[in-house]
Each structure stands twice: as structure tokens, then as C-alpha cells.
Amino acid sequence: MARLLLFLTFCLFFVFKVNGQENLPFSQDWTNPALITMDDDWSNVAGIIGYRGDGLTGSIGTDPQTILADGTTTPVDIIANQGTTTGISTGGIIELDGLGDPTVAFQGSGTADAPFLLISVNTTNFTAITVQYNLRELDTDNSTQQVALHYRVGNSGNFTNVAGGYVADASNGSGQVTPINVVLPAGAENQSEVQIRILTTNASGVDSLIGIDDISVTGTPPPPPPGVPTLSQWGLIILALFFMTLGTLYLIPEMKLKKS
Ligand SMILES: [Ca+2]
Ligand SMILES: [Ca+2]
Ligand SMILES: [Ca+2]
Ligand SMILES: [Ca+2]
Fold it and tell me: Which residues have CB under 8 Å from 70's CB, separation 6+?
């Protein structure tokens, strides 16, 4: 019976991992070049998938805060194992694992109308869900490169824009780094699945290549439930048990001696 329970627990754990919503705190800085080794393959990356966003907008320079449709039926995308930012102009999602500070980046284009990274986390029992990342301009194209932050509860339906995560232009032509640090609305708290989306749109002219690096999703963990001892209380309990055991070991032989 115990073995069966252990097996079922393992299966449940495995199912949750395959579903891909990661527990908090979650982070990704793209340091490991082996996470992505083949084009369009995200299977070794926990909790993140990149999409090309074809057709999510038909215009150039669309405000990404207004693109809230699902988008996960557009092509899953990653151009793997790039060593340099020079000459990258195809658009989509690109792994730049040969840089001194490796990152994954996106670049809008006539095909990649609204490329995005989708992050899935489990916020059960957590409050104040905080999303942080750095948008790193990696080339000198200096387009007007808008980036938006969206979230939704579950894995279907429209997203909600998070106004505090909007960047009107993430590029200045000389390596601009834009740090984002936003607390999601309370609706994202205590959910078995929350999806967070970082999305740019095809800008006028050649789009800047923007890294999405140092990603972190954290929250305030639940307080210990009432009645469950804290760590220091456990220490006192163990100490008390130790002395009780010592006392018993000493007293029982004493009592036996007195009787005899
Ligand atoms: Ca990095
Ligand atoms: Ca790689
Ligand atoms: Ca710019
Ligand atoms: Ca463009």
C-alpha cells in the first residue's frame, strides 16, 4: 500500500512537471547553453516557451498592450545556438548562448508580428506575485521597440495587460538595459497556473534585437499554519524529549534498585 502511494505521488509530481507550471520562486538567466540546442525545441526549458506571434497584428508599430489574444497557436519558435548578434534580422525568438552574458532575445519582423515569451508558474498559497526581468538591447538598430507585459489565470483565453510593465522603447541604439519590476494584480495570487507573457511588436524598419534576461517570478510565501511549531519551537520540543529520555533512563534503574 505504502509503495502504491509513493508511486502515485511520483506520477502526480511528474504530471505537474510535464504540464510545465513551475513553483515559486522561479528564475531563468539563460546561463546554461544546453537548455536549448535545436531550433524550435523548448522541451528542456522549465516553464518557458517562445512563440513567433504571426498575425497577432496586421499593422506596423502596434501598441503591444492592445494585443491580448491567446497567440499559442502561432509557431513555437527559437533560433538556437547563436554566437553573435551581428547579422540577425530574420525576426522571432533567438538563443544567444555565445555572448559573454548569454540570453534569449526577440525581434519583430514582417513574419514575427508579435513574438513573445510565455512563462507558466504555480502561485498556490503565494501573494504579491512579483515579475522581474531585464530587457537588453543587443544591437544598434534603434527602432521604436515597444514591449508589454501580460498575464492570465490558466492557459487559455485572453490575457490582461499589466500597465506597469509597458516599455515605449526598449532601445536607444547603444545597449540600453531596461529593468522591469512589477507586482501582478491580486487575481494572479493563489492560482495553480498563471501565465505571464512578455511581448514585442513589429516596429517600423529593422527591429531592435531585445534580450529578455534575468527573469524572476517570486511571491510572498504562506505563513506557517497555526498549530504547526516553528523551527525554534521544534528545537525546544527535541530538547525536552532528550531530557525526558535521559531522565527515564536514569530513573527506571534507580526505582528498580529501591524496590530490590
Ligand atoms: Ca543572462
Ligand atoms: Ca544553446
Ligand atoms: Ca529606439
Ligand atoms: Ca520591422
Answer: 156, 157, 158, 159
